Protein 1
Amino acid sequence: MIRKSSVVAAVALAAVAFAVLHESPAAKLARLQSRYGAVAAELGAACPYAAPEDRLAFDRCRKSLFGESRLRAELPERMLWGRARGKPLKDTPLTEFAPDVYAGLYAPLFMFEGRAEVSYDEGERLYKATLPVRFRNRLAPGLFPYPFWHDKTKWGAYQSATALVFYLRPGDGRIKAAQFQPGVVDAALAAQVDSDVAAFDGQWLWTDAEGRTQPQVTLFDGLYDAANPHLQQIDSRYRELALELREGECNDCHVPRNPKKIERLVLLQTPAHAAGEIKRILRSVRSGEMPEDENGHEKPLPPAVKARLLAKAEAFDAVLSEARAWEANKAATRR
Ligand code: HEC
């Protein structure tokens, strides 16, 4: 028997679907404005303007965004990130990120005014939300996903950022690509950029004076519970995998310097970056799609190298699953 209430629900659902499919541009704009207005308000509350070196403000912000935030809910399985260069998205190099990486390591580097303005971008033929921001440029080096100061233009652009722009997917309205808008680099900032760039020693991952792996944020430090018993294993399993990635020449292409000028870059040089891509690493190496050569053709690994890489990637994947399960279990028992 079909219950009357379920018929009513089905009719209501169909009405909503019809309304969304046939809504006017003005109605769509209003709907996206209210949706991203709420995302921006939450960002403004969790990550308000503060001093650029304020560690506590940064920690509050990243914990909140990494958790069940509205921002995270708007991130698809994979999004694109990079700086705006005054060119169409299709002609702009961008990096691909899993939600954990963007919500936990990148978005929290910004402080948010708390508002968003949604408009239609005629060039991209996409709706976009623009959020005024400032950048936390005085945090300790280990709180950045990697030293952005490896590149002068990039470091100046990040520090002068005035806004984030989220380009929205036509279908579900989630974030297809996000860019930060660079502002003015004045003489004082330019001088500081020069000295930071000169101090960069070429390492994406390093060990600090206390013997800890840095950048610490890439080990989920402060995102996962300090009592999570798998954190140490994430570090050692990643280091073992990293040796094999080097052996497989993956670092010739998949590093922030982007030596091969890849248009849609995948990063593998830290535990967090590789964690976001571990399923794709396994799939592309198993199938022989990766590594590739200069011309994009498959470049088969010697069988022993391939077997070792896969074994280390599987071990890293396994410890990540355990760490996530531990966090999920902790959250469940707390409820
Ligand atoms: C010569 C440059 C180069 C080398 C070396 C290389 N890659 Fe890639 N990789 C690319 C490019 C370009 C793409 C994006 C386009 C594509 O899929 O071909 C890519 C894409 C990927 C992706 C995303 C794949 C997907 O599912 O879309 C992964 C994961 C990856 N590479 C892993 C690796 C690993 C692991 C190694 C080392 C064993 C490696 N790559 C070596 C250039 C390279």
Note: Residues 109 and 186 are 21 Å apart (CA to CA).
Protein 2
Amino acid sequence: MKKRLGVVTLTVMGIFLFSAIFAACANQVAERGTVQAKTAAPAAVATTPKAVAATKPAPATPKPLTGAALYEGTPKPLTPVECGRCHTGEYNDLKQSKTKHRFACTKCHTKFHRYNPIKKNWKAIMPKCQRCHGYKHGKAFPNCMQCHINPHSPRTIKFASVTKMVTLKKGKKIIACGLCHKKEYTEMAKNPCAHNTEVGCQGCHADKHGYIPNCLDCHEPHVQGQKFKDCLVCHSPHSALKIKKYPVTTPSKICGSCHTTEYEHLRDHHTKHSNLTCAKCHDKHGFIPKCQKCHGYPHGAGLHKRFPNCLECHIDPHNLPTIGKK
Ligand code: HEC
Ligand code: HEC
Ligand code: HEC
Ligand code: HEC
Ligand code: HEC
Ligand code: HEC
Ligand code: HEC
Ligand code: HEC
Ligand code: HEC
Ligand code: HEC
Ligand code: HEC
Ligand code: HEC
């Protein structure tokens, strides 16, 4: 940014602007010349409306403006398209990135064409993001253009800056993602699993900011046919071992992929419990229900007092002994 231009370029700029002005004047002279030439040759066949107009009796030749009259108009500010005639790169960046920065260039560039390599004033005249946005992500990120590398396409982010480690005041180092995404960072820190140590934020979110990974890129499903969105029913990606509450309709074969004994007992030894999903009794992972929650005390107080544990007779909820029934 500071390495700007240099005297040579300034000279070039001078010549450029001078020739632009010169060319403009020459043009005006030339244009007037053609008008005069046209009025002088009325015999030419008039076809276009413009030409028809030109064949009409010559209006009084407009007097060229001179002196104070040259200053009667009010110059209009240049529009972005007009700036873009010379600055095609910046104009096209703004246009193609569809950024919300597509407003008048001069809203940002309140000062322009003022760069002077002797004064080294590049920084001073260039727009400051903070003027409009303040410290958008907090004081830890003061250097906006370190990540937003192009003000004319501000959503273009340099990923390397996003993944760097940031040292906090207390000396602790954390990954930059964590400062902006506190919720996800805290959730992971509080629920450590192999994702913390073996993967990390950028291990899953890959090398483009905002990329959402698919669990199935790295893992086999528990049962065939499970889709990515099914995983999120039970697993939050940032606390994968903390199993969420799943719906009662959750297919039992998912549970059965790990708890084969219970699954096979219920399947192969049919009782009325076989009609229930695992989730109907275990509505949260690891939760063990009480028989009484559903059945109360069906056999009379005396028996229950003597045998407080239902399983002394019923043995296994997944494999109930049944007498005289199929
Ligand atoms: C949102 C604010 C913003 C808008 C809108 C904006 N610019 Fe800029 N522009 C900047 C900033 C900030 C810089 C400084 C970049 C740097 O320091 O490298 C800059 C730099 C420039 C430069 C110098 C580039 C270089 O590195 O040589 C030009 C030329 C320029 N802008 C033209 C334009 C034109 C033309 C428009 C409108 C079509 C425009 N800008 C709209 C913020 C803006
Ligand atoms: C006739 C051509 C022309 C037009 C029109 C023009 N510029 Fe420039 N501009 C230049 C040239 C030449 C330079 C110096 C070389 C360079 O850095 O590209 C320059 C440099 C700049 C710079 C960087 C250096 C500085 O001194 O500010 C900015 C910012 C800038 N122009 C903004 C604008 C904006 C905004 C507009 C419209 C309001 C505009 N320009 C219209 C030719 C033009
Ligand atoms: C003249 C005021 C102004 C300046 C200076 C300015 N911005 Fe903006 N910026 C805006 C406005 C207005 C929006 C749209 C805000 C909205 O809709 O909430 C915006 C939107 C953005 C967005 C959202 C993405 C988009 O393109 O829609 C980003 C990122 C951004 N600005 C970054 C920057 C950075 C980085 C700088 C400095 C290089 C900067 N801005 C300078 C006014 C400005
Ligand atoms: C460490 C990198 C980094 C730095 C430094 C940084 N930003 Fe950002 N900024 C981002 C990322 C990443 C986004 C999200 C872009 C997206 O939506 O894809 C963002 C988004 C934004 C947005 C749009 C917010 C929205 O809700 O859509 C604005 C405005 C913005 N930044 C302004 C700034 C300003 C002003 C500064 C300097 C004070 C700054 N940024 C410094 C990385 C950074
Ligand atoms: C300087 C702040 C900043 C940094 C650093 C940052 N982000 Fe972001 N990120 C944002 C902003 C702002 C958004 C867009 C606003 C939003 O949707 O919350 C965003 C959006 C996202 C999204 C959501 C995309 C979506 O579709 O909802 C993901 C995922 C993301 N960032 C991951 C990361 C990861 C991973 C890192 C570190 C490698 C990181 N971000 C670093 C500010 C940042
Ligand atoms: C095991 C892979 C994995 C790891 C590691 C991971 N994420 Fe994510 N992240 C995901 C998935 C998958 C989603 C999409 C979740 C969804 O759609 O509900 C996501 C979503 C996000 C979102 C968007 C949230 C939203 O509501 O839109 C952000 C922001 C994010 N992660 C940040 C981070 C940060 C910061 C880290 C590191 C502290 C991180 N992630 C670590 C897989 C991961
Ligand atoms: C970028 C690859 C990657 C993605 C994407 C990913 N994981 Fe992992 N995951 C790993 C690795 C590596 C391990 C550790 C080795 C292993 O157990 O396979 C792991 C381990 C796990 C563990 C066991 C953790 C432990 O400490 O025992 C669970 C649960 C898990 N992943 C679930 C998920 C879910 C759910 C998703 C989607 C939200 C997901 N993973 C996305 C790579 C990934
Ligand atoms: C019905 C809930 C549920 C669904 C849906 C689910 N999981 Fe799991 N998953 C679990 C439970 C419970 C564990 C065991 C947790 C433990 O070890 O404490 C687990 C463990 C894992 C593990 C750790 C390694 C292992 O196999 O023991 C990985 C990896 C995993 N799941 C990936 C996935 C993926 C990928 C999906 C989506 C295709 C998915 N899970 C869908 C409940 C579910
Ligand atoms: C990926 C393998 C896996 C899947 C899928 C899985 N579990 Fe587990 N389950 C485990 C592991 C490992 C444990 C023991 C560690 C623990 O307590 O978290 C466990 C523990 C349990 C326990 C408690 C056992 C005890 O001794 O306290 C119950 C009940 C249970 N699971 C039911 C289910 C149900 C119901 C489902 C389906 C919704 C299911 N599990 C899905 C792996 C799995
Ligand atoms: C009718 C309710 C009910 C259904 C349906 C049910 N369970 Fe259970 N499950 C229980 C009860 C009650 C216990 C506690 C048994 C005990 O204390 O020994 C239990 C215990 C368990 C245990 C722990 C076993 C141990 O030895 O510690 C696992 C694992 C388990 N169930 C998995 C499953 C799976 C998988 C399914 C579906 C295939 C399932 N359960 C269906 C009621 C049920
Ligand atoms: C979530 C509720 C629930 C829990 C917990 C539960 N059961 Fe059941 N049980 C049922 C339902 C529903 C039936 C079928 C009732 C019917 O059709 O009349 C049933 C049926 C039975 C039957 C009759 C089986 C048959 O095939 O005729 C026995 C015996 C039984 N339960 C014992 C138990 C025992 C012992 C426990 C505790 C270890 C238990 N149940 C826990 C819901 C539950
Ligand atoms: C002393 C043994 C014993 C104890 C203890 C016991 N039961 Fe039973 N229960 C039985 C017998 C025997 C049957 C009849 C079996 C059959 O018809 O298959 C039965 C039947 C049932 C039935 C099925 C009723 C029906 O109409 O089909 C349920 C439900 C039941 N018991 C629940 C419980 C619960 C809940 C407990 C604990 C609070 C419990 N039992 C404790 C012996 C016992």
Note: The radius of gyration is 39 Å.
